[in-house]
Amino acid sequence: MTVVDTQLERRLEQLHIWGPYALLGVSAVLAVVSADLMDGPAEWYTAGALVGAALVLQLWWHGTRYRRADRGRSPSPAGAAYYAVRWAIAFVLTWINPFFAFYAATGYMDADELIPGMWRRLGLFASAVIVAGAQVGGLPVTSTAQWLGFAGLLIVNFGLQAFVAHITEQEEQRSRERAQTIEALRAALDENAALHAQLLVQAREAGVSDERRRLAAEIHDTLAQGLTGIIAQLQVVANRPDEVQAREHVLRAMDLARHSLGEARHSVHNLAPVALEHDGLPQALRNTVADWGERTGIRAEFTVAGTTEQLHDEVSATLLRIAQEALSNASRHARAGRLGVTLTFLGSEVILDIRDDGAGFDPLALPARSRTGGFGLDGMRARAERIAGSLTVESEPGHGTALSARVPLVRHDQ
């Protein structure tokens, strides 16, 4: 609520408290001035007693308003009774002297606060009867002309007050709806704040979990594959009595160890693979395929199709890791005689195809990954999906394997 609304509310409250006193005082003064309208001492005594009763009634109602503060300005049976007694006093006073209609007009001020529901229209009508009677010269109405004037004035008075009451009720309804809307928005904001905090926690946990999987995959792609190659070279040394050939394989094992160490250091710092440090993805794949073929003795070919683009580092690293994992799986399981790797730049996509003529397998009958095994197809698929890509595998026992990774073509400058 604004400062202006607060001030207006305070002034209306003061009007409801002191207005009846003021109107009663004005009516009494005008009644004294127009003493010729009252017949004899009886009416004077009666009017004086009723003015005193009206004052006592108003003081009583004013004194009890603090006990009613917890209910606010809401209609109640006590308020309706107070309104009815005050109206009766005003009716008799106006019958004695028409100027007491000013006091009767008090009923226009607070019918909405005192009388519940549709009964407040009856209260307004009753007050309009007194005011209209005073306006035609006082009660009782005797002549036909007075009756016609009384009827017209009653319709006008009641119509105006009923219209004002209708507008007031609509405004109160809008105020209640605004208050309910504000409360609902406050509750929604509180709920959203709690949900936001919960989502932050979940996102943080998901980010930690994803980072753990990524680091595990990085370590596997660097250390595990490098150590596998080193073991293979050392096994050859153990089976070759020729010193020259043994030295050659030892040197290869040392090169693999250095390469794996470099990969491990870059993985720790969350950088791109060593192979991409100085070369783009096509050249890095070409070198990786050539080194793998030389190390395994399997005929391996690499082909680039389409217009070569400089890819975003994350895309290049993802495709290179998938290729490394596929080559590692082929050397361990495929028993292939030939393997081909194709990198295709196709419009908005980059496609990496790896095919071999090895033993093949049934993709639906793969065993669960063990703690000592590699990341395999699940790891490659997770890598592709991490950058909104996909991985498909086609294989059949005895007929080789074809693996295809499709990822969005995101350029280096995007």
From TrEMBL:
<dbReference type="GO" id="GO:0046983">
    <property type="term" value="F:protein dimerization activity"/>
</dbReference>
<feature type="transmembrane region" description="Helical">
    <location>
        <begin position="81"/>
        <end position="102"/>
    </location>
</feature>
<feature type="transmembrane region" description="Helical">
    <location>
        <begin position="122"/>
        <end position="141"/>
    </location>
</feature>
<dbReference type="InterPro" id="IPR011712">
    <property type="entry name" value="Sig_transdc_His_kin_sub3_dim/P"/>
</dbReference>
<dbReference type="InterPro" id="IPR050482">
    <property type="entry name" value="Sensor_HK_TwoCompSys"/>
</dbReference>
<dbReference type="InterPro" id="IPR017205">
    <property type="entry name" value="Sig_transdc_His_kinase_ChrS"/>
</dbReference>
<feature type="transmembrane region" description="Helical">
    <location>
        <begin position="147"/>
        <end position="168"/>
    </location>
</feature>
<keyword id="KW-0472">Membrane</keyword>
<dbReference type="Pfam" id="PF02518">
    <property type="entry name" value="HATPase_c"/>
</dbReference>
<keyword id="KW-0808">Transferase</keyword>
<feature type="domain" description="Histidine kinase">
    <location>
        <begin position="319"/>
        <end position="411"/>
    </location>
</feature>
<keyword id="KW-0902">Two-component regulatory system</keyword>
<dbReference type="InterPro" id="IPR005467">
    <property type="entry name" value="His_kinase_dom"/>
</dbReference>
<keyword id="KW-1133">Transmembrane helix</keyword>
<dbReference type="GO" id="GO:0016020">
    <property type="term" value="C:membrane"/>
</dbReference>
<dbReference type="InterPro" id="IPR036890">
    <property type="entry name" value="HATPase_C_sf"/>
</dbReference>
<dbReference type="InterPro" id="IPR003594">
    <property type="entry name" value="HATPase_dom"/>
</dbReference>
<feature type="transmembrane region" description="Helical">
    <location>
        <begin position="18"/>
        <end position="37"/>
    </location>
</feature>
<keyword id="KW-0812">Transmembrane</keyword>
<dbReference type="Pfam" id="PF07730">
    <property type="entry name" value="HisKA_3"/>
</dbReference>
<keyword id="KW-0418">Kinase</keyword>
<dbReference type="GO" id="GO:0000155">
    <property type="term" value="F:phosphorelay sensor kinase activity"/>
</dbReference>
<feature type="transmembrane region" description="Helical">
    <location>
        <begin position="44"/>
        <end position="61"/>
    </location>
</feature>
<protein>
    <submittedName>
        <fullName>Signal transduction histidine kinase</fullName>
    </submittedName>
</protein>
